[in-house]
Amino acid sequence: MRRDTRTKQRLWRWRSNPLRRRDDAVEAWIVLAVWTGIALGGTLAGLVAGHAVAESFAQQRAGRHSVPAVLLENTPAVFVTEAGPSRQQVRAKVRWTAADGSTHTGRAKVDTGHKTGSKVRVWTDDQGQLTSEPATAAQATVFAGYAATAAALGVGGVTYAVGRVARGRLDRRRIDQWGREWDQVGPQWIRKTT
């Protein structure tokens, strides 16, 4: 019995009732549409965004190659930052041979503590130009997860906001309607009570 009562209370907007106004039914459909939009739209947006980011990183990994290079200048043994000394990467001039056999020079990120002539690894794109190291598969998965979450929350938030605006307009319309009805009924009650 108790469960039946709760179900009836939840579905009151859908039941046939002489006191139910058309705006109550419209509001019920808006609520249903909003929650469906949040659930399905957010899920779909998250899946699409996550897949797109993962695919982008996969293409990036496929289009970048690690090649040997020769360091053309010394790099500092320790890179000093505001937090103190640390071993990091710095930009230094390097020379490498592209896949077509041509020799190139440029500035690439290399580890600190190397001397001129040292062998280092740099990343190039399909055209043989220097580029940054691509994200690993694990990093790409994390970034894809962030993108999926952001897309799902964005779609859900926009859907919820649109629903709140629509319900707010319905509330204003109901209040205006109640005011007009009170203007018709109110004077009759005031005469009877005075």
Automatic annotation (TrEMBL):
<keyword id="KW-0472">Membrane</keyword>
<keyword id="KW-0812">Transmembrane</keyword>
<feature type="transmembrane region" description="Helical">
    <location>
        <begin position="29"/>
        <end position="54"/>
    </location>
</feature>
<protein>
    <submittedName>
        <fullName>Uncharacterized protein</fullName>
    </submittedName>
</protein>
<dbReference type="InterPro" id="IPR039708">
    <property type="entry name" value="MT1774/Rv1733c-like"/>
</dbReference>
<keyword id="KW-1133">Transmembrane helix</keyword>
<feature type="transmembrane region" description="Helical">
    <location>
        <begin position="143"/>
        <end position="163"/>
    </location>
</feature>
